[in-house]
Specification:
HTH_AraC, globular, 295 residues, acyltransferase, DNA-binding, Arc Repressor Mutant, subunit A
């Protein structure tokens, strides 16, 4: 895995240095000297996103930042985001952010689609966990000192949580830790997975698994703990992207693979979502291993 991480770090560094240019898999593979087919598989397996999706989301995130924190014309921002026309940029921006660039600018509230995927800190770590009982036993309530590790994970999986306000999230997280509603699984100084529960409603308010641990079945272990120990005989719910949402990188499919069924359509923070439910008698199966898996 560490060899792959070194390669992905090189690829991400190249992408970040060329965010204002039009990029595709062929160009990136040629620049870093890898087979495009090998690079595609390696990047998807490590990051949980295709290179195309990662580049698009990073460029749109930087464009959104310019919309809020600069007075550059939208046409100039469109070109800096790698688009040949303002209309093309507006179309994809609306698909991902659910509003036009001009509407986003007028609201003056920046939030990212995708932050830079930081992997350097994980170079010396091992991302396999052979003992499932050991994994399950180490799922525990988070403490104040776990907040930095927790937030590192949040920054990696921000693609699954539209409209995430980091400052507000930290405040809520501290309250959840005090109320014993925040669960964490740690490994080698990092958060492998985190979850925030609402005991009154049976809702999972936040659920994230580190991309490098998504093949370990951790999501199912968390759900087993919730349904067998913390909220037995209770319907569990979570909200995620609606069907067909272009911003969804695979979360909806992963929840369905874990046994969640569709429920009512919602709008949260102005964003269209859907509630998914898991009843005690529903069979949970491991999530698929491709793309976003254990989220």
């Amino acid at each position: 895995m560490n060899g792959n991480l070194e390669n992905i770090v090189t690829v991400i560094r190249y992408i970040e240095e060329h965010l204002t240019e039009k990029m595709n898999l062929d160009l990136i593979a040629g620049a870093v000297g890898y087979s495009k087919y090998h690079l595609h598989r390696m990047f998807l397996s490590t990051v949980g996103l295709s290179i195309h999706d990662y580049v698009k989301r990073r460029q749109l995130t930087e464009a959104a930042k310019l919309l809020v924190f600069s007075d550059k014309p939208i046409l100039e921002i469109s070109l800096l985001a790698g688009y040949e026309s303002q209309q093309a940029f507006t179309n994809i921006f609306r698909q991902m952010y659910k509003k036009s660039p001009n509407e986003y600018r007028m609201e003056e509230e920046f939030y990212p689609l995708q932050l830079r995927f930081e992997l350097e800190k994980y170079m010396e770590q091992v991302f396999s966990w052979d003992n499932r009982n050991d994994m399950k036993e180490k799922i525990c309530f988070a403490k104040e000192e776990d907040i930095p590790l927790w937030m590192d994970l949040v920054c990696l999986i921000v693609d699954g949580y539209p409209h995430l306000d980091e400052k507000e999230y930290r405040k809520v997280l501290r309250d959840c830790i005090q109320e014993k509603r925040a669960l964490i699984l740690k490994r080698d100084g990092l958060a492998a997975a985190v979850m925030i529960l609402n005991y009154d409603t049976g809702c999972i308010d936040f659920f994230g698994v580190h991309p490098l641990f998504r093949k370990n079945g951790i999501a199912k272990l968390f759900l087993d703990k919730v349904m067998n120990e913390l909220l037995p005989d209770t319907e569990i719910s979570i909200t995620t992207f609606r069907e067909g949402d272009k911003a969804d990188t695979g979360y909806r499919k992963a929840y369905q693979a874990l046994g969640f069924a569709e429920a009512e359509l919602l709008v949260e923070f102005g964003y269209p979502t859907q509630r998914m439910v898991l009843t005690p008698d529903q069979q949970m199966v491991p999530a698929p291993t491709g793309g976003q898996t254990d989220e």
